[in-house]
């Protein structure tokens, strides 16, 4: 892995592959790095995909294809690129949709043979049935921040939660909506008729959408005041089974088996109080980015098992702390010796001056 300052975020983890977004030569995330994570203790770099002068916004996977959403400062203002990952060590570009619309893409998701892209002005549908030639087939004035799909319903957020019926994937029909009563949405996840939202400073909120025409709030969770932080307590959320993984100032895991009464079952505090801004969950592991570092958390062991500190250095949690403590102790002892030597030299000089 490259230097810490080039690392941006974790994008996705699936099928023993980890996708990491990193900065290029300009100050934006222009590269996707692909790692083999079959053995978390030994991440293997497989390949890279460069978006050129465009920033990587999001990535989704389906079978052997990766879909990468990017945006730029000039036309095309955003692109959706399809990459063949049959050989992850040698990804091949299959096709690309180029948007002439001067809009900022914020999120997207896949459903059947379509991509649903939300921008700061619209909700757009891209036909992916021919991967070598993706085509926009619909454009709706639904400014949105995030989008998720479960069954044949799309859930999009802006100032409210809007539910669209995708029975006809190209002609979505609005069926329900409700205001979002908290501010600064960090992320959204959908689980069996419930939408779980995480907010930067305001905890979690659960919506019952089993009746899509009448979404209702059924539970709220607020982090204790003592856990509040200027940078927020929640920055990202993903679902794993019946658990919600929420990363922010700490790593929090919530039990969603009773959505009307969610319970926090794990709180893992970072050493140094770093904030986590992105995460991915796959095969019993949580991959997190914490301010220039990738951490790997084991669901089974309920602890961080490995951490990437950049520059290709991978340290296991079992040996990391003793090594760090030893290094700090040696540094402290060295500094004390230096201070003692400096003090002795000053005393000698003072005595010599007094004799003169």
Please sum up the structure shown:
The protein is built from 1 helix and 29 strands. It has 356 residues and is mostly beta strands.
Task: Give an account of the 3D structure.
The protein is mainly β and 356 residues long. It has 2 domains: 4-319, YVTN repeat-like/Quinoprotein amine dehydrogenase (Methylamine Dehydrogenase, Chain H, 7 Propeller), CATH 2.130.10.10; 320-356. 11% of the residues lie in helices and 50% in strands. It is built from 1 helix and 29 strands. It has one helix at residues 317-355; strands at 7-14, 17-23, 29-36, 44-50, 55-62, 65-71, 78-84, 92-99, 105-111, 114-119, 123-127, 135-140, 146-150, 153-157, 160-165, 173-179, 185-191, 194-199, 203-208, 216-221, 236-240, 243-247, 250-255, 263-269, 278-282, 285-289, 294-298, 303-308, 314-316. It has a 5-stranded antiparallel beta sheet. Strands 1-2-3-4 form a 4-stranded antiparallel beta sheet, with no helix packed on it. A hairpin with a 4-residue loop joins β27 and β28. The longest helix is centred in the last third of the chain and has 39 residues, at 317-355. It is globular.
What labels describe this entry?
356 residues; mainly beta; 2 domains; 4-stranded antiparallel beta sheet; 11% helix; globular; disordered N terminus
């Amino acid at each position: 892995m490259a230097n810490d300052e080039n690392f941006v975020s974790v994008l996705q983890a699936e099928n023993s592959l980890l996708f990491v977004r990193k900065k290029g030569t300009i100050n934006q995330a222009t590269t996707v790095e692909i790692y083999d994570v079959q053995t978390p203790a030994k991440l293997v770099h497989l390949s890279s995909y460069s978006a050129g002068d465009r920033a990587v916004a999001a990535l989704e996977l389906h079978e052997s294809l990766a879909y990468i959403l990017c945006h730029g400062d000039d036309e095309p203002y955003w692109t959706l690129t399809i990459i063949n990952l049959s050989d992850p060590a040698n990804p091949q570009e299959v096709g690309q949709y180029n948007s002439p619309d001067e809009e900022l893409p914020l999120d997207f998701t896949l459903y059947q043979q379509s991509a649903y892209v939300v921008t700061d002005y619209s909700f757009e549908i891209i036909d992916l049935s021919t991967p070598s030639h993706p085509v926009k087939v619909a454009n709706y004035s639904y400014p949105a921040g995030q989008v998720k799909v479960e069954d044949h319903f799309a859930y999009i957020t802006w100032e409210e939660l809007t539910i669209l019926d995708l029975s006809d994937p190209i002609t979505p029909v609005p069926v329900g909506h409700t205001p979002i009563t908290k501010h600064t949405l960090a992320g959204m996840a959908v689980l069996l008729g419930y939408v779980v939202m995480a907010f930067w400073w305001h905890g979690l909120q659960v919506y019952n959408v089993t009746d899509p025409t009448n979404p209702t709030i059924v539970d709220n969770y607020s982090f204790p005041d003592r856990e509040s932080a200027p940078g927020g307590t929640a920055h990202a959320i993903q679902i794993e089974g019946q658990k919600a993984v929420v990363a922010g100032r700490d790593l929090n895991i919530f039990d969603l088996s009773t959505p009307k009464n969610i319970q926090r079952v794990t709180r893992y505090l970072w050493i140094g109080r770093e904030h986590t801004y992105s995460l991915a969950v796959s095969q019993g592991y949580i991959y997190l980015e914490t301010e220039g570092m990738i951490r790997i958390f084991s669901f089974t062991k309920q602890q961080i098992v490995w951490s990437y500190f950049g520059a290709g250095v991978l340290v296991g949690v079992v040996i990391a702390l003793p090594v760090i403590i030893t290094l700090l102790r040696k540094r402290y002892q060295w500094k004390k010796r230096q201070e003692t030597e400096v003090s002795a030299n000053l005393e000698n000089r003072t005595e010599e001056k007094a004799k003169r």
